[in-house]
Amino acid sequence: MMNKNYSKTKNRHNNKPGNTTNKRKNTGNRRPARPKKGAKVSKLDPNQLIKKAQYKEIVPYVSERTIESLPIGNKLKQCLVKKGFERPTEIQDRTLEPLMKGRDLLGIAQTGTGKTGAFLIPIIEHLLHHPKKEYGLIIVPTRELALQVNDEFRSMTKGLKLYSACFIGGTNINKDLQTLRRSSHLIIGTPGRLLDLNARRALDFRPFKTLVLDEFDRMLDMGFARDMEKIIGLMQQRQQTMLFSATLDKSQQGMIDEILHQPVTVKVSSGEASADQVDQDIVRIKEGDNKFKILLDLLQQEEYSKVIVFDETKHRVNRLCGKLNKAGIKAEQIQGNKSQNARQKALNAFKKGQATVLVATDVAARGIDVDDVTHVINYQMPMTYDSYIHRIGRTGRAGKVGQALTFVG
Questions:
Q1: Average pLDDT in the 330-335 region?
Q2: H/E/C letters for each residue in the chain?
Q3: Mean pLDDT across the stretch 255-284?
Q4: What pLDDT, on the 0 to 100 scale, is given for residue 218?
Q5: pLDDT of 207-233, one tens digit each?
Q6: Against a cut of 0.85, is the pTM above it?
């Protein structure tokens, strides 16, 4: 495994006809920007971020059961078959019965393995027999993931007269208040907006019987921990709790033990290792190198056809996206200062190939389902290894080998 040195790459691209970057004067003499005083600095060991993809034959999990043979009602079976479900995924297969019995559950499975269906199927089945309003509360860390879960619920329950509502930041709260005048069976949202609605006495957490924390490792970290403690403390009738994520932070075990009661634990993956289907390497940025020019040289290569570039702050993402567009790279951005409509528009443009690059903060590391991402580039070292795992999980999916590069220096 080599640490990529882009002096050769730079020369190769400078020889390409029509390379517009040659017209930029003195670009190679700029020093990388030094971190501002007080800025967070990643403590990750760069050697952790170097790993060849394991080119082993992956034997896909094939359940012995079909959807038609699952212990659920015919109405739900028909909806799942219409959606194209044939057999449950491994996480769905191994969690269905415990969840239908009302057990608490800790589920660990990589992105794209059917975690959303794993918690929605038993919830829907319960609601079909006991259609109680305000039954389930699903909390997720990002707006995009909330919308994705809500869309999945609605597509699974088409014609079943079960209703959900989704509440996220970046949207008109007055519309949320109007929505809450109508009862829903399932509430899906991000912590900040849910607490805001609770503070306005529009959303009462007390009636909810079931709680799901999707991407719970993020929900229980320092950014959301207090919000989660408050919401859980207000759920006086909580009877069942499900925690799902791709990673398991051992430092959170104490909180997990407090939240779950005699849980069933199902691990489809270890929760510790990064994606085996991703070639991981680093790009050393030496003093005097132009970091942006190196990124530009990479993105101009033909194989970089669908790339997510991660940066650490909203302002850095905005600036980097602007520079890429000025350099002739079609780029969109997703970050916290953008409205939800703008974020959705950017994501759709990236999915449709109207933009080849999506520049994003960690909001894009979870819950964004985009096919055929060829590369993930960390323009800055991630703050945590868990964040790194979720980022590179955007590529190397559906049996394909992905590529992940992290700029170091």
A1: 94
A2: CCCECCHHHHHHHHCCCCCHHHHCCCHHHCCCCCCCCCCCCCCCCHHHHCECCCCCCCCCCCCCCCHHHCCCCHHHHHHHHHCCCCCCCHHHHHHHHHHHCCCCEEEECCCCCCHHHHHHHHHHHHHHHCCCCCCEEEECCCHHHHHHHHHHHHHHCCCCCCCEEEECCCCCHHHHHHHCCCCCCEEEECHHHHHHHHHCCCCCCCCCCEEEEECHHHHCCCCCHHHHHHHHHHCCCCCEEEEEECCCCHHHHHHHHHHCCCCEEEECCCCCCCCCCEEEEEEECCCCCCHHHHHHHHHCCCCCCCEEEECCCHHHHHHHHHHHHHCCCCEEEECCCCCHHHHHHHHHHHHCCCCCEEEECHHHCCCCCCCCCCEEEECCCCCCHHHHHHHHCCCCCCCCCEEEEEEEC
A3: 84
A4: 85
A5: 999 999 999 988 898 678 999 999 999
A6: no
pLDDT for residue 132: 86
